[in-house]
Design brief:
The protein is an alpha/beta fold. Helix content is 30%, strand content 24%.
């Protein structure tokens, strides 16, 4: 990575934007110039990057002039509005929203799973949904050895999935409830402190919510398995940060838990956490702030001879969002794929 690059972060003041800044510094990404972009209400805020104090600017038509790389985490509507303009200005956009994930022209990338997909970008690369990324890291090493026939997952999703505001809301609600007061809700439709509820994204006619269908469709795209049988139940739980998932896998023939554990111990981005004597397995508390996702409780499904059960916890803001985006950026730089179609022709 001899070159250095002009980088812009769109949505720089949100939970993921803040983590992107931390990771660019931690991982020593070759930044020549860093531009922080956000909505008008964040303009004038200052952020420390390495030893430099940077001011947040409002995004406008000239924001992407001379920029090589845009890390976008400002929501689907803003990505749809600004990503094409950034590409037209000559930048490559790594987008953390759902805006482009299922677009056939846009690669959907988890670097440990399908890095080669990034090479075919047309200026935009999509970062998958947080729950999809975490699941893909745990399932892919097994799927490569013996293809998964059916995947059933239940998620236990922290407040961080809805951003910094939601995390603060849960803290306030917990305090209110402990003080005998009624908890107030803004970020979520119902109180999350001391409570849980099925994911509050819109439901389709089959009764699956948007979050669940993201896991179904995105996993199929990342794995290049359009007919993979996937079913998901997504649940919000009163955890501040890091999601957990209970995964049931069905194969065409038995898959030894010992073999599965060995494969996962060797897998990039995964740390196996299992102490059966102490009944100690992955927890959000341990996964928070970690780059690796924690996988454990790998066991035979006693209801099916070809079934395997897994449990995982992973930091939704890091590997579930910001870290995956930065790893995609590193992939583009090291393999010299950081170019737009306009620059190629």
């Amino acid at each position: 990575m001899a070159h250095s690059y002009r980088v812009a972060i769109l949505g720089a003041t949100g939970a993921v934007g803040t983590e992107l800044l931390t990771l660019l510094a931690e991982r020593n990404f070759p930044v020549k110039d860093l531009k922080l972009l956000a909505s008008p209400r964040s303009v004038g805020k200052t952020v420390l990057f390495k030893d430099e104090t940077l001011s947040v600017e409002a995004v406008d038509d000239s924001s992407f002039d001379g920029v090589d790389l845009v890390l976008a985490s400002a929501g689907g509507a803003l990505s749809k509005a600004w990503a094409p303009k950034a590409v037209a200005a000559g930048a490559v956009v790594i987008d953390n929203s759902s805006a482009f994930r299922m677009d056939p022209q846009t690669p959907l990338v988890v670097p440990e799973v399908n890095p080669a997909a990034a090479a075919s970008h047309q200026g935009i690369i999509a970062n998958p949904n947080c729950t999809t990324i975490l699941m893909a890291l745990a399932v892919w090493p097994l799927h490569q050895v013996q293809p998964v026939r059916r995947l059933v997952v239940a998620t236990y999703q922290s407040a961080s999935g809805a951003g910094a505001r939601a995390m603060e809301e849960v803290k306030r609600q917990a305090t209110a409830i402990l003080n005998g007061e009624n908890p107030q809700t803004e970020a979520f439709p119902y109180p999350l402190a001391f409570n849980l509820f099925p994911h509050n994204s819109p439901l389709n006619e089959a009764g699956y919510c948007q979050e669940e269908m993201k896991m179904v469709n995105e996993t199929r795209k990342i794995f290049s398995e359009p007919d993979l049988r996937v079913s998901a139940t997504c649940v919000r739980v009163p955890v501040l940060r890091a999601h957990s998932e209970a995964i049931n896998l069905e194969f065409s023939r038995p898959f030894s838990p010992v073999h599965a554990k060995r494969l996962l111990e060797q897998a990039s981005g995964v740390k196996v956490v299992e102490d059966w004597q102490a009944n100690y397995f992955p927890m959000p508390m341990d996964a928070s702030g970690q780059d690796d996702i924690l996988v454990g409780r790998i066991r035979q499904d006693i209801s099916h001879p070809c079934g395997l059960e897994l449990w995982l916890s992973g930091d939704q803001i890091r590997k579930g969002a910001a870290l995956n985006a930065v790893q995609i950026a590193e992939l583009l730089v090291t393999r010299q794929w950081l170019h737009t179609p306009a620059q190629v022709h």
